[in-house]
């Protein structure tokens, strides 16, 4: 038996009653994804904080909390646009619990009376993907100067800089749209292909300088013409 249960202290009794009531008010919990439904846009989440129960002797024991199922996922969206990404088993989340039952809103997306009187309940959570424990922190770390969309390992990035420069790269290629208006590509090559395999076209307005140019299987670096009176022209000159 707990020591407080042996004393007739009304203040202590009130404190324990308030603590017991507060313990049933869920606000937010970190968790780990155990499943993802991309059609319903919901996840199953195992809370990452253990619960506590007392045995018949008053001893407190840690227990795993129940699995949270059909938890709506919060994706960044608005104005007809959505940013989506895959959610994998093992991803860390923060589940935020609504103060009232969300079932009516969840089904119809409109203001409705709550079908249940429950408050701050584990059944009314919404999952925010992305909080990271120290065990899953990004390496390399966050870019402190620029906005960046990246893979966790940093091998593929899309970076926007304060001077309006935009850079995209992966281990094999890169593209830089500079604030000076110059666009630079780096990689094994650039390929143009029309939709459905048809013919394609490209237009360049202004001057273009290339080291080598092949058109219709003709190498312009070594190309020559046949003269109408016999013989050939010499090759191209710089």
Descriptive tags:
single chain, mainly beta, Phage protein Gp138 N-terminal domain-containing protein, about 30% strand, Gp138_N, 5-stranded antiparallel sheet, elongated, about 240 residues, OB fold (Dihydrolipoamide Acetyltransferase, E2P)
Question: Care to describe what's here?
Answer:
The protein has 238 residues and is mainly beta. It has a domain at 1-137: Gp5 N-terminal domain (OB fold (Dihydrolipoamide Acetyltransferase, E2P)), CATH 2.40.50. 8% of the residues lie in helices and 30% in strands. It has 2 helices and 16 strands. The strands form 5 sheets. It has a 5-stranded mixed beta barrel. Strands 10-11-12-13-14 form a 5-stranded antiparallel beta sheet, with no helix packed on it. It has a two-stranded antiparallel sheet with strand order 3-4. The radius of gyration is 32 Å and the shape is elongated. The mean pLDDT is 87.
